[in-house]
């Protein structure tokens, strides 16, 4: 039986991914800073490990806990991260470090820990963003972190490919999660802190080819594909899950 390790896997998009892999028969090991009880709701084949992705040692511990508990690691998903908008004039070192340490450095440490425990045929999936492919107003710090994830994904695909490890990223556009809705309530966000639901509806109608936005399940389905044998020749890619917002 295969094993998934996922950071940030107990809420938002991460919870959707964890649930999908669990339903597909995987053992699921969830790393996050707070235990909200989600792992306990997936009986028998799920485990929570307290993890701060900004710390390399926490990723090492997460990977080793998975090995000890399940005997192997087949897929490592770096999902922990957050989104916030802030104009350049308001970015300070604390904000910058928090964004880069979580979204980019946390992904790097996850890839490093995964590379040590994955067997040939294993894969790493980094949850990036459409903001990792195009810039946006008041979004320079977040975009920098996600552009970094794109570069990291491409470089490590080349580096780890000879070991039989594939590395890909998934780039969602807006997915309606509690974290996104909180971020959109800030005045510097594209919604300008106003009616966030109305903003997302208008965005979908005007920007999306399908006139809708993806769900967490849509992102999870992309991850299941990238982890499957059907994607055995796919590596170094950053796959948009955006309903056609940015056709490429």
Task: Give a short overview.
This protein has 248 residues and is an alpha/beta fold. It has helices spanning 12-23, 56-70, 93-117, 140-160, 178-184, 196-207, 216-227; strands at 3-7, 27-32, 46-50, 75-78, 123-127, 166-172, 238-241.
Mind explaining what this structure looks like?
Helices cover 42% and strands 15% of the residues. The chain is built from seven helices and seven strands; from the N terminus they run E-H-E-E-H-E-H-E-H-E-H-H-H-E. The protein has helices at residues 12-23, 56-70, 93-117, 140-160, 178-184, 196-207, 216-227; strands at residues 3-7, 27-32, 46-50, 75-78, 123-127, 166-172, 238-241. Helix 1 packs across helix 7, helix 2 (56-70) packs parallel to helix 3 (93-117) and helix 3 (93-117) runs parallel beside helix 4 (140-160). The radius of gyration is 17 Å and the shape is globular. The termini are far apart.
Write the layout of secondary structure elements.
Blueprint (H helix, E strand, L loop, with lengths): L2 E5 L4 H12 L3 E6 L13 E5 L5 H15 L4 E4 L14 H25 L5 E5 L12 H21 L5 E7 L5 H7 L11 H12 L8 H12 L10 E4 L7
Parallel strand pairs: 1-2, 1-4, 2-3, 4-5, 5-6, 6-7
